[in-house]
Amino acid sequence: MVLTEPGLSVVVDAMLIARGVFQRMLSFLTYRVAATLQLVFFFFIGVFALPLENYGIIDDKFKFFQLPVLMFMLITLLNDGTLMCIGYDNVVPSVRPQRWNLPVLFCISAVLAAVACASSLLLLWMAADSIGNYDQSWFHGLGITKVRPGQIVSMIYLKVSISDFLTLFSARTQDKFFWSNMPSAVLLCGALISLAISTIVAIFWPDTSPDDINTMGLVRGDGNTNLLPIWVWLYCIFWWFVQDVIKVLAYKLLERFDIFHYRTIALGHYKPKAKKGKTHHHHPDDGPEPFVASPIAVTSSPQHHPH
């Protein structure tokens, strides 16, 4: 092959680097859209569908679930700090030329967000239901101690934070399971530090009322809730596996029925239809026709070195 000749293999290296950059950009955008959708729909649905006063929580300042502004800032700050590490992530460059398919990107982001949002709403409902009807609640059936209204805030903060970070590891592998490609040490360390900070904040938050919202750390109180952080972590990890399986199934569905031209674009067979009245016929005076790259494998081949 011509590109494996001495002096020209640098072209292959450039293609690999460019496709690696594309994969990182795709991971970044998929995660950013998913995280935004999760937060927006969680609070939108939580406010209107789960008024806390219906679950025995009598507090004029806590009729609807809300997070203190400081917790929102921590979620955003830690997420952005971890996202900066994605530029150093391990990626597997595609063997074919890449092109943007925004409908697929938004579809997968919506799938990731839907699972994370549904699991957060379920946890909020179970926690709120345990306040006024503990003996008949899911928390009682699962052996989880009754929580206070202020601890619901810390619990949901921890759940949303963990789910956001775990969603990043699901989004970065696209149509494969999250364990198919190990993250780089930089990304892994950044995520672990952010997760540790979020967990510590949720555990030891003092019994205060920022923004007039009663907030209490998960281990504050009589000591019966000391295992709550571990339970929230296990809950998030379970839904992370569910989220990743649904993501892979969504990709297979897109490929099976070629939804949004997913399969044809992946195979390099997609040709956008020319708009009516915009058909361009090449004229000899216009110079040489533009080069159209055909799908080629960029796997390394043995190079011939002069003796």
From TrEMBL:
SUPFAM superfamilies registered for this protein in UniProt: Calcium ATPase, transmembrane domain M
Membrane in keyword set: yes
Keyword Nucleotide-binding carried by entry: no
InterPro entries xref list: ATPase_P-typ_TM_dom_sf
Transmembrane domains' residue ranges: 29-52, 64-88, 100-128, 152-171, 183-205, 225-242
Assigned keywords, A-Z: Membrane, Transmembrane, Transmembrane helix
Taxonomic superkingdom: Eukaryota
Protein name listed in UniProt: P-type H+-ATPase, putative
